[in-house]
Amino acid sequence: MDKNEEKQREEEREQVVSPWEVSSSGKIDYDKLIDKFGCQRLDQSLVDRVQRLTGRPPHVFLRRGVFFAHRDLNDILDAYEKGEKFYLYTGRGPSSEALHLGHLVPFMFTNRYLQDAFKVPLVIQLTDDEKCMWKNLSVEESQRLARENAKDIIACGFDVTKTFIFSDFDYVGGAFYKNMVKVAKCVTYNKVVGIFGFTGEDHIGKVSFPPVQAVPSFPSSFPHLFSGKDHLRCLIPCAIDQDPYFRMTRDVAPRIGYHKPALIESSFFPALQGETGKMSASDPNSAIYVTDSAKAIKNKINKYAFSGGQESVELHRKLGANLEVDIPVKYLSFFLEDDAELEHIKKEYGAGGMLTGEVKQRLAKVLTELVERHQVARAAVTDEMVDAFMAVRPLPNMFD
Amino acid sequence: MDKNEEKQREEEREQVVSPWEVSSSGKIDYDKLIDKFGCQRLDQSLVDRVQRLTGRPPHVFLRRGVFFAHRDLNDILDAYEKGEKFYLYTGRGPSSEALHLGHLVPFMFTNRYLQDAFKVPLVIQLTDDEKCMWKNLSVEESQRLARENAKDIIACGFDVTKTFIFSDFDYVGGAFYKNMVKVAKCVTYNKVVGIFGFTGEDHIGKVSFPPVQAVPSFPSSFPHLFSGKDHLRCLIPCAIDQDPYFRMTRDVAPRIGYHKPALIESSFFPALQGETGKMSASDPNSAIYVTDSAKAIKNKINKYAFSGGQESVELHRKLGANLEVDIPVKYLSFFLEDDAELEHIKKEYGAGGMLTGEVKQRLAKVLTELVERHQVARAAVTDEMVDAFMAVRPLPNMFD
Questions:
Q1: Where is this region: Disordered (chains A, B) (predicted)?
Q2: Which residues of A touch B186 (CB under 8 A)?
Q3: Alpha-carbon span A106 to A239, nearest angstrom
Q4: B44-76: per-residue pLDDT in tens?
Q5: B1 found inside a domain
Q6: Domain count, chain B
Q7: Three-state DSSP class for residue B21
Q8: B104 lies in a domain?
Q9: CA–CA min distance A138, chain B (Å)
């Protein structure tokens, strides 16, 4: 192993981003990730173009770089500019009952911005089959979690006349299964090993799954929605750890007669303990859950949120906070919508005029409001509403 | 490599039997195959037991050893003796339009014997997805072939009140897909490589397929037929090259709460050119097709059927035919139902009293009658009948 190889290996050890693992010895280097995955940076000119085309100010997640990378977003916008519509596809692996704030990011962005701004339909895949296989849940338990998660997703405010939610266990079959077979024919085992790192001791369910996540990118997988619209384009908002699935999908798409899906990719919502990975479902103290009480939120923030402030008030007044590593400021930059207030906090806190406790208090208020709003909305989601979103049906006015 | 290993390798080279390849440098050694696969010989005492339990003389394929091996057939019969019913599962990979006689063997045995004698329901899987992936057919072409093959299967005389025929492309989904996932979770990639010999350059469709062929062995895959009957046993009549699929299935079955399916396995119907493998769909002169004319049958037999007779009439009269390698006699032992006549032919021909030409003439008559009967029956199979057999429906009187 020569020096360069050694260096490369070390870098790879430092930062692992796959659909199953996100870890890093330091901060995730998103520039490096863009290079490694081969996607493009979502730069200001593209944000401006979205604003121009939709006539709407960019969503906070867009203007603050939460969604920071893309693939072929320009092609989607070119087509849109010529009057051609597209559809959105996002999803969730229902591995746990309660969602945390990081889970909400793609749904908030898709719902409160993309779908509304572009006036396009949305399909949401709940990969209960995946979680049944990876997490060794029973079929029944994964289906139960899928329905529970669907309630949280619906609580984000999606429009039932433009949104189709489906669980793989319910929906795989027919045109969807045919497309799975078409995709599977185009991908060798060596290829999925290269992309996903499977080993011979992994079960074949894992090897069989990538086509299941691939095919919602193709309109013919949804005959009740897009019959006769095989050339409809698809835009996928997702966290960047899902990129490997869609690299594979984009490789296959033209070979089976479809457009490559475009992607708009987010960074990870950091754990309370600091920005070295995503939040972990296995450590409840690493995240704020949408089921947390106001008291729990306050406690978690005060106890666990990694602070960039100094060790003593005196030192803090003198040196100010290190905003680069400060989790309360990170969280506020996701969820405090007021740009002026955010700038004010960053300036004051960075200069030492504001203390960690004050910033944490502001954050607790912002998150409590968000979570309580979500809880109220979620409590209003009935089983009938879930059935309505998940009914296999046409969406007659989906492009209006 | 020591001597033993060398010998074993050589033996393996000599005889390859897998779902995709049957080849041998000499005659297939079925005893060796039983040892290698680990199934049991279907001996006379078991044939007698079937006769005793069903009150019917054994089918010609049973009493002449065409079905020569089994797995757990005794368990099925034990349960049957106690009044417990079972169901039959067989299938076909629709890779070609016209079936040859070898393709009919499992269907004739299932229809004219097993189903009737035991009064049990039957599911027939058409693996159009498999053929789409292995033979690189389009989805549409594999589905068309599945329907065409269904007509030939129906022409064998199946009872629509006891028989459900399905194509994977139509039927995969719901409970069937859930069982696919349950099976896939239990089988590692290394395991399927050991069983099926896949390589890293094989596409993942091949790796994904074994669970599709496995799950019709489990009653819950057919909720419209066997709802609430999860402990119903399954008996699979098939050619022995399908054994690898069901070895895997039997390994998984108890881990997901089902009985291991039992098997009753046939030898291969030999090619006209001699008994070194199965007939090949790619060489039309290696087989008699159910679409062949009387003239074509006569020609093929006269021209290609490998004879055990001697080179000259004089020598033949003196030495007699070698029945061990004689294809006309082999074919007659499949399809000439009259035991006495068959014995007579074997005796006379073996002693030189009967010439090859006479035996071939008798065979041509037997096969022409069989094929013409099939053609008449097939011409009467309408699209409506295919729809009726393939309708997803209960079979209310399936055990009567």
A1: 1-20
A2: 203
A3: 7
A4: 999 999 999 999 999 999 999 999 999 999 999
A5: no
A6: 2
A7: strand
A8: yes
A9: 9
